[in-house]
Amino acid sequence: MRHEIMARPAATVLKVNLDQGESLTCEVGAMIAMSSGITVETTSRQRGGSGGIMKGLKRMFSGESFFLNHFTAQQPNQTIYLGPSLMGDVMSHPLDSATLIVQGSSWLASDPGIVIDTSWQGFGKALFSGESMFWVKCSGTGNLFVNSFGAIYEVDVNGHYTVDTGHIVAFEDSLTFKIGKAGQSLIGSFLGGEGLVCKFEGQGKLFCQSHNPPSFGKLLGPKLRPR
Amino acid sequence: MEAEIRDKPSFAHIHVQLNPGESIIAESDAMASMSSDIQMSTRWNGGFFQAVLRRIFGGESLFVNEFTTSTGGSIVITQPLPGDMECIELDGNTMYLQPGAYIACEPTVNLGLGWAGFASFIGGEGLFRLKVSGKGKVWFGAYGGIFEREITDEYIVDTGHLVGYEPTISLKVGMSGGIFSSFFSGEGLVMRIKGPGKIYLQSRSIGGLTAWVNARIY
Questions:
Q1: ipTM score assigned to the predicted complex
Q2: Which residues on chain A are in Cβ contact (under 8 Å) with B82?
Q3: Prediction pTM value
Q4: Beta carbons of A194 and B40 less than 8 Å apart
Q5: What confidence tens digit (pLDDT) does each residue in B121-143 have?
């Protein structure tokens, strides 16, 4: 499986070359175009594996779809183009018996060797971080594709690092985060518009998005007429 | 301080590296992420009355955040809109920024509020404008790409596209053509800008986006 990421970072498109017998698991609705030698199978299950209705429901809680699309090449040298619905970036992250925690709705596609599960982050974090209660937990071996609103930048965390809510895309499971205040005083943090932030701890890679969908929505929303 | 604007022009954001003892001022909610050795403190955007005036008339926030470090650290600053950013270095001169355009500045820069006039208000640009003066770097952003023009005489800009300008510039509102073409050309009112001086324009306008979306909401 070879891939190419084009038109970064605003109108990013992911092109994947599949050889006969190779397959790719994608988010529902992400396919833009593909060769005619690729077949689609829509299930709530992992390819050739476990999962069923419960897994699908859990996925819905994490901001993804109930179903997964499995694209399999029946002929040699097939291509598929994928694009997320929002303007933004796509990155690839190869996993080698590792785990990446992805923000709900940021998972785009992955190698069938990666298990897509949900990770419970707790009520407190969900209530205060503005993120979903469940996160997408991707573990296994193979390539993983993640999308964002805005450009993705990578941070090597060694110790502590602070991210504003709404800017997390994904992080390695060697990192943990807590919800905290941005400044020294809680009132100051809210008046300053930063409010609560996610404080990461540990050693590992963290991927952030440059833009924040709720901030854009807050600016645009009042200017739209009610339906 | 070392600062770099990345991913221009669609999703510009600033990566800032602060040396020990340095600080940067940023608009409310502009921080995307930062290393833990940076402290954030919130203060009035100017004085109390200045801040209140700016909030009501300038469309800016009541508060700004100051990010300081005693040991050095890095911070990423962004804007809510997808678009471009520009950095200007002030050396005792003044620049006017449209409401919402300001993102960040060095602490040596003064933020003030200036009366922009009724022409600016009718042109959809607000009664007041943000006045940045002093010495140091200022970062501002826009929706769409930013491009600058040096104008010597009169220049015509569609409403909602002006981002910033030098104090030598004066603004007037006018019609783009005769009454008929002004109403039916889709241009309507335009800003008549008189130089000499420098202006910064944005390639898209929020008004244009919301009008497009509003026409499609049923």
A1: 0.84
A2: 10, 87, 150, 211, 216
A3: 0.87
A4: yes
A5: 776 666 778 889 999 999 999 99
